[in-house]
Amino acid sequence: MDNNLNQEILDKLTKVCLCKAIPRSKIKDSIRKGATTVEAVRKVTGSGTGGCCGRRCTPKIQDLIDGYLDNQWQ
Ligand code: FES
């Protein structure tokens, strides 16, 4: 299995927003489509609206945005 496929599978399985069960793949899709702030990702995906009010997922979303803007993933 190639690395891209492994990464895609991991992204589908890994939840970024645990409260809303939103996978990393959905967060990444929103970033690719232009949501390059945490607030924009929240609006598109509904992340950050769960019981913890985004305390757990906000830093993870920010890291993904920073990585995308830094060309660490596409
Ligand atoms: S983990 Fe995202 S709102 Fe709690």
Written account of the structure:
This protein is mostly helical and 74 residues long. The protein has one domain: Arc Repressor Mutant, subunit A, CATH 1.10.10. It has helices at residues 3-13, 24-32, 38-45, 57-69, and strands at residues 15-17, 22-23. The protein has a two-stranded antiparallel ribbon with strand order 1-2. Strand 1 and strand 2 (22-23) form a beta hairpin. Helix 2 (24-32) packs across helix 3 and helix 2 crosses helix 4. The protein is globular and about 35 Å long. It binds FE2/S2 (inorganic) cluster.
Give me the CATH superfamily: BFD-like [2Fe-2S]-binding domain
For the biggest β-sheet, the strand order reads 1-2
Distance between the termini: 19 Å
Classify the oligomer: single chain
Give the overall form. Answer: globular
Low-confidence stretches are: none
Tell me the major beta sheet: 2 strands, antiparallel
CATH domain class: Mainly Alpha
* Helix content bin: 55-70%
Order of helices and strands: HEEHHH
Number of helices: 4
- Rg calc: 12 Å
Count of strand segments: 2
Q: Architecture, CATH level 2?
A: Orthogonal Bundle
Number of separate structural domains: 1
Structural class: mainly alpha
Q: Report the average pLDDT across residues.
A: 96
Strand content: 5-15%
Bound molecules: FE2/S2 (inorganic) cluster
Task: State the CATH topology.
Answer: Arc Repressor Mutant, subunit A
Pfam family, one: Fer2_BFD
Protein name: BFD-like [2Fe-2S] binding domain-containing protein
InterPro entries: BFD-like_2Fe2S-bd_dom (IPR007419), BFD-like_2Fe2S-bd_dom_sf (IPR041854)
Domain BFD-like [2Fe-2S]-binding: 16-66
